[in-house]
TrEMBL record:
Zn(2+) binds at residues 646, 648, 670, 731. It catalyses: 5-methyltetrahydropteroyltri-L-glutamate + L-homocysteine = tetrahydropteroyltri-L-glutamate + L-methionine. Pathway: Amino-acid biosynthesis; L-methionine biosynthesis via de novo pathway; L-methionine from L-homocysteine (MetE route): step 1/1. The lineage of its organism: Bacteria, Pseudomonadati, Pseudomonadota, Betaproteobacteria, Burkholderiales. It comes from Collimonas pratensis. It comes from the Bacteria. Binds 1 zinc ion per subunit. Residues 431-753 form the Cobalamin-independent methionine synthase MetE C-terminal/archaeal domain. Residues 4-314 form the Cobalamin-independent methionine synthase MetE N-terminal domain. Its cofactor is Zn(2+). This is 5-methyltetrahydropteroyltriglutamate--homocysteine methyltransferase.
Length: 766
């Protein structure tokens, strides 16, 4: 009999209950007991959903108070020693200081989890890091689940993935130098799970979907042999999970690893099955991820069942049916969507619906097809309705796309000629200061939008409130002495959702929240059809903001790759086709902004790196269309119009040449949490256009001091010519409060002024 399970369930709650409890705790409005109670309620609810759906285990260990990688460090006791916390006595308040920083401490670095829009906290590897055991939280959660009567499978981030995803901070030549300690830590943990009677442990090793070098590849066999030897054939059985890509190059390794089973992502790596299944050992489980954990289209149950049936003959009860990866990346429950029309809703499955899909497949495999016939009928109807619906195809868009030429992607002059004209026009000081776009999204702004959405205030009142906010933001920027201003984006719920709401081909949810990092969530829109811009989206706001100041006001758009990457994307055409459709819509907006005398336009591409395929052999194709899409969106303007772009929270060094190929006049880019590591890349590749490496980390409430930012700028001057260097924060300020934002920007402007004085002194001395 096939079994059914998921690799993880979203923890934030269908109504973001965890977010509100975290934020209330951080504000001091509630205590740790209240936060813990919310966590327990959510876990209980999510386990119950899994049990009610008919899964064979509930997954414990997917919950995290902030992030699952940080949670693993806390569990193992491997928290950075620079914070001075005792790993065994770590309180929740301490744990949040690791994640968010404090007056005394920089927060841990945060970066994207593989190619998702989820951010994890980067382990800090030093020679003195310990893996001797930490908090008991996981063990308490196991007890909780059992007390509720559930059969438990524990999920852990695997030892090699944990090591790989961290960064060496000091005292180590290679991350694998830590292996003996890490393995000992996991052995200790597995023994404790064994002693608690846990029979099944899912151990996530998604790095197997990357192109690993020999040192990492070769580490798997000995590590898992050691873990297995420790368990000496007794429980818990290890299910090694791979996901986010195919792993067929490791087929032999996976067959021979001493684990009880292996999980494959068959959504991302459909073609790997044949190679891996051939000669699959008689004693190993094969868990097949057939229900998409990264998108929310309803599964074609017939198609999947057809694929699984022959395997059942081979594997029998060693076949497990699963989600492709954790369901962390999809919203919780479609039942909470009252505003989506019935047709569209019938095409979708959120996490809760995916549980039912997995169980339907299991039952159909186990000879109980009649029990789930209705689900198969609905799945069939959804596929047919999606294929034939007239709302998906727009001939206007398709015709325009077919007519795009190579010239459409090129500005009319090269960078040197453009920047000379732009400098003559704007006369900016050396090291111009600017911000990334958003200013604090205050409770007042969000409440006004909520009231407008509920119909409690009218359209004009809402516009007035947002305009008032823009007035305040412009006034503060003038007071601060910033050189290039922004309107602050108060009218945007989210930088992607806002545009999605105005474009045809996009649908948006009322409650489709997905965790992005910590307490922060996004509602990725759904691209279901050809994308078309019916009218200007931002011109009125930017025009209004420009009337308030004589300084340049940057127009503010989200770029095509990010619009794609942070949406749930249609799966019935290549991603690049959708990206180019969005690019054309944005190109029209960029040209309309120029016509409205907005002379600087920022096209944000924070997800440009995130979209990069995990395997480098797939990079050239992606980079080619992604760069092209950006350039098409930007290239309709004249030489004097300055195109900015912005990127954040990713590793950029390996793609600097392609970032340069995007040919934005100015790029602002996140660097401060990693102490400007980006600059290392400049040693090898001289970025040709203007660049603003972020000088302070906006994800931490900590206010950076002038000296710190000045130090970073001096470091930047080592590799970026003065004439090319801008001064700005790492990212938008929407998550920050006003007092800290104002103080930080005051310090930033001062740092830029000090730098100007230094340059002046150097000039005089020369
Ligand atoms: C730059 N980043 C972004 C990413 N992905 C995106 N899609 N968008 C991004 O900006 N990925 C990488 C980074 C991640 N960073 C962030 C930063 C900040 C957030 C964030 O603040 N999210 C908000 C939700 C934003 C939103 O949609 N707001 C809506 C709804 C607000 C709301 O909760 N309203 C209340 C009522 C009002 C009240 O009483 O306060 C309600 O509906 O109940 C809006 O402004 O209208 C968050 O709160 O988590 C995300 C990613
Ligand atoms: N313009 C956006 C970019 C975030 S990545 C902002 O400032 O929030
Ligand atoms: Zn950003």
């Amino acid at each position: 009999m096939a079994l059914a399970h998921v690799l993880g369930f979203p923890r934030i709650g269908a109504h973001r209950e965890l977010k509100f409890a975290q934020e209330s705790f951080w504000k001091g409005a509630s205590d740790e007991a209240a936060l813990r109670a919310t966590g327990a309620t959510l876990r209980a609810r999510h386990w119950q959903a899994q049990a009610d759906a008919g899964l064979d285990f509930v997954t414990v260990g997917d919950f995290a108070w902030y992030d699952q990688v940080l949670g693993t460090l806390a569990l193992l006791g491997a928290i950075p020693s620079r914070f001075g916390f005792d790993p065994k006595q770590l309180s929740l308040a301490d744990y949040f200081i690791l994640a968010r920083g404090s007056k005394q401490h920089f927060a841990m670095e945060m970066t994207k989890w593989f190619d998702t829009n989820y951010h994890y906290l980067v382990p800090e590897w030093t020679a003195d890091v310990q893996f001797n055991g930490g908090v008991d939280w996981l063990h308490d959660e196991i007890a909780e689940a059992r007390a509720l009567g559930h059969k438990v499978k524990v999920a852990l981030v695997g030892p090699l993935t944990l090591l790989y995803q961290g960064k060496i901070k000091s005292g180590l030549g290679h991350k694998l130098d830590l292996l003996p300690k890490v393995v000992a830590g996991y052995q200790q943990l597995l023994q404790r799970l064994h002693a608690a009677g846990i029979e099944s442990v899912q151990i996530d090793e998604p790095i197997l979907a990357l192109e690993l070098d020999a040192a990492w590849r070769n580490a798997f066999a000995p590590v898992y042999a050691q873990l297995n030897a420790q368990l000496s054939g007794s429980a818990p059985a290890l299910l090694l999970t791979t996901y986010f890509g195919e792993v067929s190059e490791h087929a032999e390794l996976l067959r021979s690893l001493p684990v009880a089973g292996v999980h494959l992502d068959l959504v991302r790596g459909a073609d790997q099955l044949e190679q891996i299944v051939a000669g699959w050992p008689q004693d190993k489980v094969l868990s097949l991820g057939v229900v998409d954990g990264r998108n929310l289209w309803r599964t074609d149950l017939d198609q999947v069942l057809t694929k699984l049936k022959p395997l059942q003959a081979q594997l029998g009860d060693r076949l497990w049916v699963a989600s492709s990866c954790s369901l962390l990346h999809v919203p919780v429950d479609l039942a909470n969507e009252s505003k989506l029309d019935e047709e569209l809703k019938s095409w979708l499955a959120f996490a809760t619906q995916k549980l039912a899909e997995i169980v339907a497949l299991k039952l159909a495999l186990n000879g109980k097809a009649a029990e789930v016939e209705a689900q198969f009928v609905a799945s069939r109807a959804a596929q047919a309705s999606r294929r034939s619906s007239s709302r998906i195809h727009n001939p206007l868009v398709q015709k325009r796309l077919a007519a795009v030429t190579a010239a459409d992607a090129e500005r009319s002059a090269g960078f040197d000629a453009r920047i000379a004209k732009q400098q003559a026009k704007w006369q900016l000081p050396a090291f111009p200061t600017t911000t990334i776009g958003s200013f604090p999204q205050t409770a007042e702004i969000r409440q006004a939008r909520a009231a407008y959405k509920r119909g409690e205030i009218g359209h004009l009142d809402y516009l007035d409130k947002m305009r008032e906010e823009i007035r305040i933001v412009v006034e503060k920027q003038e007071q601060l002495g910033l050189d290039v201003l922004v309107h602050g984006e108060p009218e945007r719920n989210d930088m992607v959702e806002y545009f999605g709401e105005q474009l045809w081909g996009y649908a948006f949810t009322a409650n489709g929240w997905v965790q992005s990092y910590g307490s922060r969530c996004v509602k990725p829109p759904v691209i279901y059809g050809d994308v078309y811009r019916p009218e200007a989206m931002t011109v009125g706001w930017s025009q209004f903001a420009q009337t308030l100041t004589a300084k340049p006001m940057k127009g503010m758009l989200t770029g095509p790759v990010t619009m794609l990457q942070w949406s749930f994307v249609r799966d019935d055409q290549p991603r690049e086709t959708t990206a180019l459709q969005i690019a054309l819509a944005l190109r029209d907006e960029v040209c309309d902004l120029e016509k409205a005398n907005i002379g600087m336009i920022q096209i944000d591409e924070p997800a440009f790196r995130e979209g990069l395929p995990l395997k480098s052999r797939d990079w050239p194709h992606y980079l080619d269309w992604a760069v092209r899409a950006f350039k098409i969106s930007a290239a309709g303007v004249g030489d004097e119009t300055q195109i900015h772009t912005h990127m954040c929270y990713s590793e950029f060094n390996d793609i600097l040449p392609w970032i340069a190929a995007m040919d934005a006049d100015v790029i602002t880019i996140e660097t401060s949490r990693s102490d400007m590591e980006l600059l290392d890349g400049f040693g090898e590749f001289a970025y040709p256009n203007d660049i603003g490496p972020g000088v302070y980390d906006i994800h931490s409430p900590r206010v950076p001091q002038v000296d710190e930012m000045e130090r970073l700028l001096r470091k930047a001057r080592g590799v970026i010519p003065d004439a090319r260097l801008w001064v700005n924060p790492d990212c938008g300020l929407k998550t920050r409060g006003w007092p800290e934002t104002y103080e930080a920007l005051e310090n930033m402007v001062l740092a830029a002024k000090r730098l100007r004085q230094t340059v002046e002194q150097e000039r005089k001395a020369a």
